[in-house]
Write a sequence for this structure.
């Protein structure tokens, strides 16, 4: 693992080229529409999991309602394109912005609270979102959902299965790339400082509340974008796709991959989307497996697969941790 | 109409109160939220249902079975999800209980199927009628059982040695340990007790709504958590107050807004409380 990491670090351009070629060739290697579809779903989850990782892994906050922002993005995009006749390319960023606005509001209201309360408030928000979508029939069509979300087109070319795949690869790569750049910036360092020790961060002049709201909003924007893509990919949205269990699935992927790592979320999404597809005969046990994975990871391997120092790990010496 | 809502509110409030106490006991002792409380409620309901279905149609035996099942599950949960994680970020054990809740719910779905199972009606005869509102024996029994349990719990905590130990651990568990209190055993017992409360609540709810199903605990657990929050998470009387208030507010609230929004009333109140008065109605201020 370490030698691989070193190799990647020392040859970034070569690595990028290899990854690009691999991702570009993947649909032809898979050669099966169904597999390409699974790969596309992995892409959606890479965006969702990476964005939730900003909240959980980088900043150490807890959101149990990430699926709500995903759903808000999906509904925004679906409604703008079917009811207002917008173009997908305009609806996609707007979906991100709308989800981000909701994220800011929730963040402003709750990020001063203790972690546990934040967790339950976001969980409550997820449930509220779902119930409002189901009940506000005149606006969201309630339990019937929104069907016939248009297929995106680009310069007269209509997206097919491969088109969706390439689009999600681009979106996921942009997401991971932006998150990577932010993580290694002043903002990223501030977030990690907050995670490690809020009081110390504050005394160093970090605007803790401001950065928390910023991180939360930032993550919600990506969730909204993932939602928009999902709406146009599935071509149908309903509240069921964005229930709390979806939030838990995303959290499980973050925990499995490794909180606070850039690569971990990709790994988590990859494994937990593909695993149930490979073991189709275990379909009815999907939830059992996810729950078990979540327990086992947190109890046995709190750092996740990526093996970075995750937030679930026991501090070596309580209270005063030193990094040097 | 007013009286009808009052009666319904008190009956449902009893179940919320028991479940809210389950949260309050655990939070009060360890400052941890047991997300799987709703699942313990569901497991309790299933235990009660199995007694009624396969042994004898006795409501009180079912309640006992629910309590025992909840007690055992609470113990197991503490052993596997909490003990290993003591000293780690609290949020890790919260997430772990989410995993546990999910696991139990799905396991029950695999074992029993996701559809609702009917609980036979118990004591559905009308006990008395006040100004056009009929109150069934079942409603009286539910409220009475809840009240008896609440009194017993208060006695247990304030009149017995184990209760003293629980109070000591909840104040400061390090010092309690130094004073020779077996912390691990006390914490195990606390979780088991919380589980028993949830289990009893589950059986009462399944008798009241005539239904048992694997996901019955999700919404109930969340709502009762809100009830516990606005009563004050650390206080048992607060949880009781919160539970009954939630029952009443929900039933009266439905008169004002559409019934479809019933389930969000509790969350909205919880969020308001968290912002305005995070220690709840009766809770003590903590750092």
């Amino acid at each position: 693992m370490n030698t691989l990491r070193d190799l990647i670090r020392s040859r970034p351009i070569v690595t990028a080229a290899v990854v690009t070629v691999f991702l570009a060739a993947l649909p032809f290697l898979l050669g099966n529409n169904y597999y390409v579809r699974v790969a596309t779903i992995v892409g959606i989850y890479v965006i969702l999991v990476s964005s939730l990782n900003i909240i959980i892994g980088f900043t150490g906050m807890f959101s149990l309602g990430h699926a709500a922002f995903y759903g808000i993005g999906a509904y925004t995009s679906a409604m703008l394109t079917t009811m207002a006749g917008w173009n997908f390319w305009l609806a996609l960023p707007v979906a991100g912005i709308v989800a981000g606005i909701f994220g800011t509001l929730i963040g402003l209201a709750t990020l001063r609270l203790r972690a546990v309360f934040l967790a339950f408030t976001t969980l409550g928000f997820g449930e509220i979102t779902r119930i409002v979508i189901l009940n506000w029939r005149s606006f969201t069509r309630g339990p019937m959902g929104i069907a016939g979300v248009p297929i995106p087109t680009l310069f007269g070319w209509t997206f097919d299965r491969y088109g969706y795949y390439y689009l999600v690869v681009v979106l996921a790569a942009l997401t991971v790339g932006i998150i990577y750049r932010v993580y290694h910036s002043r903002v990223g360092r501030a977030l990690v400082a907050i995670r490690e020790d809020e009081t110390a961060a504050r005394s160093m002049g970090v605007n803790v509340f401001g950065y928390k709201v910023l991180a939360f909003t930032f993550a919600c924007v990506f969730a909204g974008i993932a939602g928009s893509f999902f709406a146009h990919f599935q071509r149908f949205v309903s509240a069921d796709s964005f229930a709390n269990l979806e939030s838990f699935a995303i959290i499980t992927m973050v925990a499995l991959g490794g909180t606070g790592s850039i690569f971990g979320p990709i790994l988590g999404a990859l494994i937990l989307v593909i695993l149930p597809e490979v073991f189709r005969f275990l379909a009815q046990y999907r939830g059992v497996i996810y729950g078990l994975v979540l327990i086992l990871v947190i109890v046995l391997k709190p750092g996740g697969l990526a093996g970075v120092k995750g937030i679930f790990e026991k501090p070596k010496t309580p209270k005063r941790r030193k990094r040097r | 109409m007013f009286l009808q809502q009052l009666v319904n509110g008190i009956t449902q409030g009893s179940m919320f109160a028991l479940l809210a106490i389950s949260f309050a006991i655990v939070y009060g002792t360890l400052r941890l939220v047991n997300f799987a409380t709703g699942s313990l409620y569901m497991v309790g309901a299933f235990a009660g249902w199995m007694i009624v279905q396969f042994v004898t149609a006795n409501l009180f035996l079912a309640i006992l079975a629910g309590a025992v099942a909840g007690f055992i599950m609470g113990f197991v949960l503490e052993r596997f999800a909490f003990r290993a994680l003591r000293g780690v970020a609290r949020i890790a054990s919260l997430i772990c209980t989410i995993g546990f809740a999910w696991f139990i719910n799905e396991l029950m779905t695999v074992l029993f199927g996701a559809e609702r199972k009917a609980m036979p009606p118990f004591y559905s005869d009308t006990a008395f009628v006040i100004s056009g509102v009929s109150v069934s024996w079942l409603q009286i029994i539910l409220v009475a059982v809840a009240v008896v349990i609440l009194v017993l719990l208060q006695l247990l905590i304030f009149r017995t040695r184990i209760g003293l130990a629980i109070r000591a651990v909840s104040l400061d568990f390090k010092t309690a340990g130094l004073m020779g209190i077996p912390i691990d055993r006390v914490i195990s017992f606390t979780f088991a007790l919380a589980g028993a409360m949830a289990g009893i609540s589950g059986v009462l709810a399944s008798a009241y709504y005539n239904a048992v199903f694997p996901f019955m605990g999700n919404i109930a657990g969340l709502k009762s958590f809100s009830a516990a929050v606005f009563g004050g998470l650390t206080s048992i009387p607060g949880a009781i107050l919160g539970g009954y208030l939630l029952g009443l507010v929900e039933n009266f609230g439905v008169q004002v807004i559409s019934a479809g929004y019933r389930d969000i009333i509790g969350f909205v109140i919880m969020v308001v409380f968290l912002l305005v008065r995070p220690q709840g109605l009766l809770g003590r201020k903590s750092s």
About this structure: The first helix of chain A runs from residue 2 to 10.
